[in-house]
Amino acid sequence: MKKKLKIGIVLYPTFGGSGVVATELGKELASEGHEIHFITYSKPVRLSELRENIYFHQVSISNYPLFDYTPYEQVLTSKLVDVVKYEKLDLLHVHYAIPHASAAYMAQQILKSQNINIPFITTLHGTDITLVGKDPSFEPVITFAINNSNAVTTVSESLKQDTLNHFDITNEIKVIPNFICTKHYQLDNNEVYKSRYATNGEFIITHISNFRKVKRVGDVVKVFREIRKQIPCRLLFVGDGPERINVEREVRSSCEREDVLFLGHLDSTREVLNISDLFLLPSETESFGLAALEAMASSVPVITTNAGGLPEVVDHNKNGFLSEVGDVNDMAKNAIALLSNKERLSTFKSAARAKSLKFDMHKILPIYEQLYRDVL
Asked: 193 in helix, strand or coil?
């Protein structure tokens, strides 16, 4: 029997894709018998309860008059040293380059001076490379942290190429795609729940995001507006963020306001996806498209863009449609063509579910376990 590992997982504990993936990975590793230690500033949103083999270490952030902003990287480094030393961890897996990878490197060097060797793996998720990473002030730190990681992974081929294009990387980068536990998305269809929103049997169209500008949430409204002209439907917005107030203002001043609902943050989106007929994701860029994959696992076809890693998830004209960024007319045309043909819609739904199975956790988990053992 292979030795079970003690793994420290460093993440942002928010609703974002990197935090969700890191949390779900840790939970599945724990179910396989590994001892998982989550290290971050608050309990991850997907960690609803502590289970066997799972521990949470909070990074305490104190306020000092000397600092306008507490130097989180240094506080995190100290916490990593403490947890590795006293919990006797085998390795660290850090998600997101800034500041987790650089903090892991500093902790590694401090521990090395105490004759403790701790390798760390860095997983790049997207905006740490495509947005933050393009800031010249961060470039030297990100490059150094990536090149000095004991292993580096990205969630898509697209993100790997972006990383190689933006930084002088000498380290090998391994692509391990995002994943979901597909069995959790096979829910019994709840017609009572659907009738709350589709009171007259309308189609349910859904968008889930953190409402940042890169998600182009305004395009969701434009696409929905065109669909609604021809097909009875209702739009459900799930999530929150800086662009929500602008979208709400636009919807409230229009004739479709009664057909658009804002549900806010939900701990689980599965129930909403389970009653959805179509998922809209008109993002400017997506390193992978975890929200799209979750929709597909719920047998929901996806109308999205051909940006970033989305073409690696959505197959055009098979389980969804890909359009150029900002081409709301094409997205609306594809959506109308699909919703107006029930037989075709049913075929797309089955194909969406089938494609999602390729990204099932139980296919991806062994890849990570092998990587851990290779690094050790």
From this structure: helix
